[in-house]
Amino acid sequence: MPTTTCIFDAYGTLFDVAAAARNAATEPGREKLAAVWPQLAEDWRLKQLQYTWLRAITGDYCPFWQVTQDGLDWAMERQGLGDDLELRERLLALYWELAAYKEVPAMLTRLKAAGRTTAILSNGSPDMLDGAVTSAVIGDVLDDVLSVESVGVFKPARTVYDMVGERFGTAPQDVLFVSSNGWDAAGAAQYGFHTVWVNRAGDPVDRLPAKPQHVLSDLTTIPDLAATL
Known about the structure:
Elements: E1 5-8, H1 19-25, H2 31-58, H3 64-78, H4 85-95, H5 104-113, E2 117-122, H6 126-136, E3 144-147, H7 158-168, E4 175-179, H8 182-191, E5 194-198, E6 214-216, H9 222-226
Parallel strand pairs: 1-2, 1-4, 2-3, 4-5, 5-6
């Protein structure tokens, strides 16, 4: 049976998580941020992810918006910006308006034209995801946006991947799962999905029990790949 359903992680996969820091750094009076924004963005994302993993292990679930704020606080303190509350609020506001990567709208449009179901499966809170989808103007080429808030645990818990079959009535082999996070793609591969790791940075493959079946540098050819599975 051909792949019927294409599921995407959100942050870092469809949406550019560095955009908030990068855009804020171009604003007048942001000289301190302009000097350190790449490292701040990297630290922010890393801590955001690390806090989801730790909370998944300990069972201390909280909305993704909380770990997003906690990660930013750590990153700002590391760069000596922890006392700039106005900057903090600006960065958080921009996170609700993250830009989609340039190839995303056309890629999703091609998948829909081919008759495939498209959806997001994300750690993000529903209101955060709604803001990002609206800002990127891609809601009309998505069939649904699934948040882990429904199950109260972060990826890569199997319960999260279960949400796809429960929502769309699909078997794992019917699904192509796409993520920019190597650990997420590995978790989905172990679950039984066809998987793509979008490796924009050219990083090594994670040493985990399962590996993504496909590695791409961006999302452009996802419709072509889906047609072969």
